[in-house]
TrEMBL record:
PROSITE patterns per UniProt: MFS, SUGAR_TRANSPORT_1
Organismal lineage: Bacteria, Bacillati, Actinomycetota, Actinomycetes, Streptosporangiales
PANTHER family: MULTIDRUG RESISTANCE PROTEIN MDTH (PTHR23517:SF2), RESISTANCE PROTEIN MDTM, PUTATIVE-RELATED-RELATED (PTHR23517)
Protein name (Swiss-Prot/TrEMBL): MFS family permease
One Pfam family in the UniProt entry: MFS_1
């Protein structure tokens, strides 16, 4: 596949993959209502609903790792199709379930297939786009999620008032729609890819690569901060006399900033930054925005702070995935991206515990001051691991 030069349009395959991801994200709202479905339809306690939700979250961690393994061994398109169709089947089953055990079973099944899509789709971008433009490509991929997320909220608000089970049906339909688009636009996997699992290249281990481990540690801290914002922001607003529902407005501001800020990544001054410097700068911006949350007295002040930390997020997400793709040997990109991506699974477990505890013990000001300090520590860490991230011809992949 031909790499394209800086400044050209992204390859058609990548652009259509981004569109397909936005379509899929339009339906990715049902999980937010899984606990509501369990408590209202089956009369379960909130604690039981929380356990089912936690089981889903735990299942997503091996799902992403397995997705990376399949991406490199079975093929990119096959793995994406498997993940999307598996999600659709599980979602339809949850919608049709007649008992709590059935819902719990298929919630775990959904978790096991939920992240299969991510590593191969990220690897497709790395395969199709040259190193100089991967940051922009991954940032646009992330922006597609933001755009889809905005539409998802509107769909959920309408369909959810009708019947909660239909949320899962709509989600399943968008998974199938995305699968159809992927099947049509992605090139077929090479015929011999499934037979290459026994080749020496298939034994490349991401988990024994010091550079990847360093990025994974930084990525886990970043993801924990990000998930803390998602979980704790609605809980913290009433302390300042602001309605918890206004968090939806702030999340929309963040999504709009992510989309509108894409041209910033093409500025020569930004594009010329080394990866560690750009990541550290993004972390500093996030720290500034979260420090703004700590002292913000009004909703407009929260809006301004949201714009600041969202620009920091914009500078970090695409650059981080581009760097991991560059660290990876070509034949192990799926596994490297999957290993890095498990940081989000760990953050999903850690953020609710840490964020709610901090909010309970230190209040909103203490919570956001602590997360701002974590971002400063992240900036320092990104600069500290610079020696491990030298991308030269002498860098050897670690083989089992």
């Amino acid at each position: 596949m031909r790499f394209f030069a800086r400044g050209e349009r992204l390859p058609r395959t990548v652009r259509l993959l981004i569109v397909a991801r936005a379509v899929n994200r339009l339906g990715a709202f049902s999980l937010s209502f899984l606990t509501v479905l369990i408590t209202t339809e089956f009369g379960a306690s909130p604690a039981t609903a929380g356990l089912v939700s936690a089981a889903f979250g735990l299942a997503t961690i091996p799902s992403r790792l397995f997705g990376g393994l399949l991406a490199d061994r079975l093929g990119r398109r096959r793995t994406i199709m498997l993940g999307l169709c598996g999600c659709a089947v599980a979602q339809f089953a949850i919608a049709a379930a007649g008992s709590l055990p059935v819902v719990a079973l298929f919630a775990v099944v959904l978790g096991l297939v939920f992240e299969l899509y991510e590593p191969p789709s990220q690897a497709v971008i790395a395969d199709a786009v040259g190193a100089g433009d991967r940051t922009r490509a991954y940032s646009l991929f992330n922006a597609a999620l933001a755009v889809g997320g905005m539409g998802a909220g509107l769909i959920a608000a309408g369909v959810g008032r009708w019947d909660l089970r239909w949320l899962f049906v709509v989600d399943a339909v968008t998974c199938l729609a995305c699968a159809i688009v992927v099947r049509a636009v992605l090139p077929a996997d090479p015929p011999g890819v499934a037979r290459s699992a026994t080749a020496p290249a298939a034994r490349v281990s991401a988990w024994r690569d010091p550079a990847l481990l360093a990025m994974f540690a930084c990525g886990t801290l970043f993801a924990t901060v990000y998930m803390t914002i998602m979980i704790a922001l609605p809980l913290s607003l009433p302390e300042r006399g602001i309605a918890a529902t206004d968090a939806g407005l702030l999340f929309t501001v963040s999504a709009v900033t992510t989309v509108a800020g894409q041209p910033l990544l093409r500025l020569s001054a930004v594009a010329a930054l080394s990866a560690p410097t750009a990541l550290a700068g993004g972390a500093v911006l996030m720290a500034a925005g979260l420090a703004g949350y700590a002292v913000a007295p009004t909703l407009p002040a929260y809006v301004a702070a949201t714009v600041v930390w969202s620009v920091g997020d914009l500078f970090m997400v695409g650059r981080a995935y581009a760097l991991v793709a560059e660290l990876a040997p070509v034949e192990a990109r799926g596994r490297y991206l999957a290993a890095y991506g498990t940081s989000w699974g760990l953050a999903t477990i850690a953020a609710p515990i840490a964020g709610i505890q901090l909010l309970d013990r230190a209040g909103a000001a203490g919570l956001w001051a602590a997360t701002a300090c974590a971002c400063v520590a992240l900036a320092v860490a990104q600069l500290a691991i610079r020696p491990l991230l030298r991308l030269d011809a002498g860098r050897q992949a670690v083989v089992l």
